[in-house]
Design goal:
There is one protein chain. Helix 5 (74-93) packs antiparallel against helix 7, helix 14 (270-287) packs antiparallel against helix 15 (294-311) and helix 17 runs antiparallel to helix 18. With 386 residues, this protein is mainly α. It contains 18 helices and no strands. The longest helix has 29 residues, at 328-356.
Amino acid sequence: MRSQIGGLPRAFWALWGGTVVNRLGTMVMPFTGVYLTQARGLSVATAGLVMGVFGVGSLLSQLVAGVLTDRIGRRATLSGGMLATAATMLALGYSSSLPAIVASMLVLGLVMDVYRPASSALVADLVSPEERPRAYGLLFWGINLGYAVGVTAGGWLASLGFLWLFWIDALSGVVFAVLVWRAVPETRPAARESAGGFGVVLRDRVMIGFTLVALGNALVYSQTFTMLPVAMTKVVGLSPGQFGLAMALNGILIVIVQPLVSGWLGRRDPARMFALGLSVMALGFAMTAFVETTLGLVVTIVVWTAGEVITAGIPGAVVATLAPPELRGRYSGLFGFSWSLAAVLAPLVGGRLLEIGSQALWFTIGGVGVLSAAGMLLLGPAIRRR
């Protein structure tokens, strides 16, 4: 196990620990729909619109955070974003009128993921290129570990009162902010005069190509929390309990397997490994078209989780390779934007396809994964030259 955790700087582990604490406290977002409809009495349609406002905020969040990461620093952006998130969480928890709820959700969308570009840039600054895939993989593992525990605890606490969720979520953000501010040094390099806004990033054709590949990856994975629950419960007829039990396997496999293979995966060519992982994920989701039982769903989850484990540490390492040190925030912000965009597009596209039929949805999603894998192979030579 020492080979999996050794060789990484102390500051990285402070960032990792803060990330785990933050994810342990991530209790509000998984239960937002339940909170808005049950605690605040909104209709399902109104709650959907409110959550859509959050999505609009998150689209802008990554781009703004990328610029802030490069201009005011990684540590200040991450800590400031966490403190702003904590304050907004409490504002949302105590909001009772619809205008106040909408305003709080918009601001929450803007600030909640501000830490992501800063965190990615910090890892790139702190960790050697050879160790980056392993470091990003361990960060991914910590996020899943914390989230699994946080969601489980959140479900229990929600029965005691939703306000508990908001306070714990806010407190975890404050702990993350303080830990980073005290234990992680500022690593932002001096900006060059030529370093401008996102125009520099948008002129990097390799990064644009990789962002499109990342968008395809995100569209595929986003089905796990958008259309997959609907398809399994409404079309296949599984109960929520059966679906939840099957999906728990995803987190369990990641927590067990990810630390064991991250070092080995980090020594392989990132473009080929990412293409392999995308292909395995595509296969797993295409197989979902034939699911009729809980066991069938379990088999598909095992397959696409294997693909998720393969891809986990690679995107961050690729972005760090492509980005000049003084622009790592902007590059990470553009990468994060692809995931925010996918979170908006996935339910819109997936819902239309599911109306046509289950096979239309899952074969299309599988096709998107295969096309993304092919795109990654095409980008491979250019990434290796960098």
